[in-house]
Amino acid sequence: MPVTPEALLQLKITLQGLRPAIWRRVAVPANATFAGLHGVIQGAMGWENYHLHSFSQDQREIAGRRRLYEVFDQVRAKLEYLYDFGDSQLHRAALEKVLPADPEDRQPRVLAGEHACPPKDCGGVWGYVELLEILDDSTHPEYDERLAWVGGAWDPEQFDLKEANARLPRLRLPKS
Q: What would the pLDDT profile of 22-55 be if each residue is shown by its tens digit?
């Protein structure tokens, strides 16, 4: 199926540098802007939209007003999404498939995902790995402090599809 402005794009968004991978699969209208995709990624991943971000493909920045179909022009097209320039939360977004348009439902949705998003300001991938190590060892001298910092009971395996969809923004889409 060709990429058209009317299509829905199935994207897989993966936070880079972690195993097991933290990822979300989303369906987004092809005529949404990259500014709109930013909001979708924020909601799907569980980020809180406090930090700067950028999209790039082949090391060229993508403007927020561009439409997704202009960049995701074929299956397997990829780009990078950098969120929080300090913590450098780097994501890869890949077009997995083009879905038929649904004129009754043109809003984005999260289709699947795995694992909780790292807490805000945890220090990037390296800080997150350290956080997990500390929380896995109740005898660690920083255990109580870090547990309080994440809000008490916190499960890095937790992913709630319904909750992720509830966080998604409604997009203002042009008439196709």
A: 999 999 999 999 999 999 999 999 988 888 999 9
CA distance 145 to 152: 10
Element housing 12 (H / E): strand 8-15
CA distances from 100 to 3, 82, 103, 127 (A): 10, 29, 10, 41
Contact by Cβ (8 Å): 18, 90: no
Query: Which pTM does this prediction carry?
Result: 0.92
Q: What is the largest CA-CA distance in the chain?
A: 58
Distance CA 118, CA 132 (A): 10
| Cα radius of gyration (the chain) | 17
DSSP string, 150-168: TTSS--TT---HHHHHHTP
Q: Describe the strand order of the beta sheet including 53-57 as a list of residue ranges.
A: 60-62, 53-57, 78-83, 89-99, 8-15, 22-29, 109-114
Residue 81's H or E segment, with its range, is: strand 78-83
